[in-house]
Write a structure and sequence with these properties.
The protein is mainly beta. The chain has three helices and 15 strands. The radius of gyration is 19 Å and the shape is globular.
Length: about 260
Amino acid sequence: MNDSNSLHWSFDYNYGAQNPQFAQELIGTLRGYDPEAAIRCTQTPQIITHVYNVLPNYWRGYSRGENTEPLRIGTAVIERRKNDDLWHYSVKYENTTSGENLQMQFCCHDENYRPLTSNWSVDARNSAGDKYSQLTCTGYLTSDSEVRLRINGNPEIAGGAVGASVKLTCNWALFDVIPTLARTIQASGDGVDIAVLEDLEQLRLKSKLGFLESIQTPLPLDGYYLYGAGLLPSYWWLDGHGDVAIASTFFETLVLREKMGERV
């Protein structure tokens, strides 16, 4: 198979004289993923973890002889633990090229849209080494469905309000929302409306999840999109096990490397 010609346009960032090539890295990661490992693992029940390689969509490193360094620039780990009717999320994202290290904690109701509830927190750091090297943010939803944020310990600010009937979720919970709503999205024709609190900081009210298409290479995948006012387009591809195998945004693409635990 010619790897350079096997990628869908929504995650085809194979170009120029890259070494290693984007397609080779993406396909190699997918082929190395063992979905049966989740069944064999000994992780505590009710805990699900997905580990993703982060690949850059636009890479300026050109071939200069034999390059054995991987294209991967970081890792994203999404862990969730179910306790009664709540899912407790812990997200860790590291980008080794920018020096960014992001950690998020939040809770969602055990519903299809995984609506946010309770308090949440964000700890973002980089390698700058100055007063801008760390940002902390805590937030919550008021009884009037208003997002309230406190950044670096400063006084609270309003982050926007959502309607009482609107299900507000986090973009990192979409790794569960899209598989759960896959059939509903496909049957809707025009997609389903959703409100997203991007990285638990930016409120994106007018967003839509829709079905893109199904493909067979580099493996059978069903594609979905997230479009919305103020949001950069992103594309989400589910494998035959119902896991998000590829999540591609404007600047980077997450590729599933490992999974522990099973959905209940």
